[in-house]
Amino acid sequence: MNDDYKKMWGGLGLDLQAHDMLLEVLGKAYRDIYLAQKDRPEGMGYFDFVMSEVHGLRIKELMNEKEAGRKIIGSYCVFVPEEIILAGNATLVGLCAGADFAMEEVEKLLPRNTCALIKSTFGFKLGKVCPYLEVSDMIVGENTCDGKKKAYESLNDIVSNLYVMDIPQMKTDLGRSLLKAEYYRFKETIENLTGVAVDAANLKKGIEIVNNKRKAVHRLSKLRKADPAPISGLDALLANQVFFYDNPARFTESVNKICDELESRVEKKAGAFPEGAPRILMSGCPMAVPNWKLPWIVETAGAVIVGEESCVGERGTRNLIDNSGNTMDELMEAIVDRYFNIDCAIFTPNPDRLNHIIEMYEEYGADGVIHYGLQFCQPYLMESIPVEKALEKRNIPTLRIETDYSMEDIGQLKTRVEAFVEILK
Length: 425
Ligand code: BJ8
Description:
4-stranded parallel sheet, alpha/beta, binds Double cubane cluster
């Protein structure tokens, strides 16, 4: 391992031994799950490189940005507007984690029956293994589900730089006003942190950068509509995960490059899976790196995942921001318009999400839907039952999965997924 990196991680206060262990597990999982796939697009080489350097080169870049006076903002939710952060001369990184760590320590602070995503947040902090957390000048939490909302109160005791954003729970005029007021408060916080005034010109630039990033992933999604699908669901998921870590301009360029390659694969009818392979739409909780368990089970069962109705996927990236306004208020209104459309299950009622699942099922030519809920995630598990009922009413085959980050249920999940895939054949 590069000695410079060791020095950097040590300087960030990481537990080097525990961190080495994490990297070893992550590297092995990546080799077994990602590199073992056949017929991958060449452009995935970029993402393989990003993953091999996820705690190395990318952290070094962020440290260099900090030295140059730029601030780093960490976040756990797609409601945190990257446009405002970029306009204030700061960089956004995702902090959600997809692996269990330091669970014994975590369960001293959180109840056992807390979802794996929240536990993982605490585990990475308490285990001192996440350089993104340590490099962040400000960590943004948000009042979304009850689990997160209350967990941030405890997180506040173990980090010194937490900011909490309030998020509405209903899609009403009042809810929209709350979001707008919160985005203005956030803008002021960013300005105070960076000393850079967010004005219409730099906000427009921020919107353009993030719109371009989203356009690139929209292009990637569209190509997955082809049969055979030109890219595996695992590889597309990885691109959606890297969306939260990478330099935005470089990410946009790399995804567009992959899309050029996928276009020619579509023309040649070359795919990651044979034509006619059962096509699955995944829907539900976000999957943060390195949570690849369920997609791996689905795709090793012979089905291909063609879309993700998830915040690490289309729920998080759909809709662009209208960049035609010229005043701060016009641009802030446009930002609120886009984000207020996010149909997270914390909203009540939340009919848009069901409509979006059906729309995606049809558009991507899916044969079935797998609803993925993390154990103890009330919003998505509660919503999964009416979603399943509504889909089955439309004769859309649906499988409801509830799991966590452990490997204990792999055998049982495989049996259920394989049986579901057989039905779709
Ligand atoms: S906008 S989905 S990123 S809140 S899995 S912590 S909901 S108990 S992550 Fe999310 Fe923002 Fe919504 Fe998207 Fe709670 Fe459920 Fe855990 Fe979850």
